[in-house]
Structures are given as C-alpha cells and as structure tokens.
Amino acid sequence: MQVLALICFAGSLMLARAQHSLPELARLTGCWREAAQQALAELQQRLEARGQPTDMAQLLRHLGIDPHLVRYDTEEQEFLPPNGT
C-alpha cells in the first residue's frame, strides 16, 4: 500500500513540476517525505521483529538513502517534520 502511495506521489510531483506550481510541489514533497518516513519506520520494526535489530541511520546507509532526503536527524536519531526546512 505504501509503495503505491509513493508511486502516486512521484507522479503528482512530476505533474506539479511540469506546471511550475511551487506551493503544490512543496506540499507534495512533504507528503512524499511523510510516506517515506512511515515506510522506513515500518521496515525497521519488521526487521527488529525478525531478530535483526538495526538503528535507522544504519538502515538508511544500507538502502543508500541520504538521511537529509527523508529528514532524518542522525544526531538526535529521529525524523524531523516532513514539511520543515
């Protein structure tokens, strides 16, 4: 379900960019980040449930995801609000 939501957001992002709607692009980017944060948190929980404890920074490195892209603060070890600057 979340993968489908990410795909829909990606399509909406491309459409907003093509239409040069910066406020809409910012809103959709925030939606994408929120969905990505939720998916990453769920993945981490599932890995831990399978006996593979991992911290989020380690998971992001393993997946090749820049923590800034999904607004993860590696020092505080928490996600920041998806729409922040």
Give structural notes.
The structure is a single chain. The protein is elongated, with a radius of gyration of 14 Å. By secondary structure, the chain is mostly helical. The model has no long low-confidence stretch (mean pLDDT 85). It has a two-stranded antiparallel ribbon with strand order 1-2. It has one domain. 62% of the residues lie in helices and 5% in strands. This is Swi5-dependent recombination DNA repair protein 1.
Mind sketching the topology for me?
Layout lengths: L1 H17 L3 H28 L6 H8 L8 E2 L4 E2 L6
Antiparallel strand pairs: 1-2
GO biological process, one term: double-strand break repair via homologous recombination
Protein name: Swi5-dependent recombination DNA repair protein 1
GO molecular function, one term: transcription coactivator activity
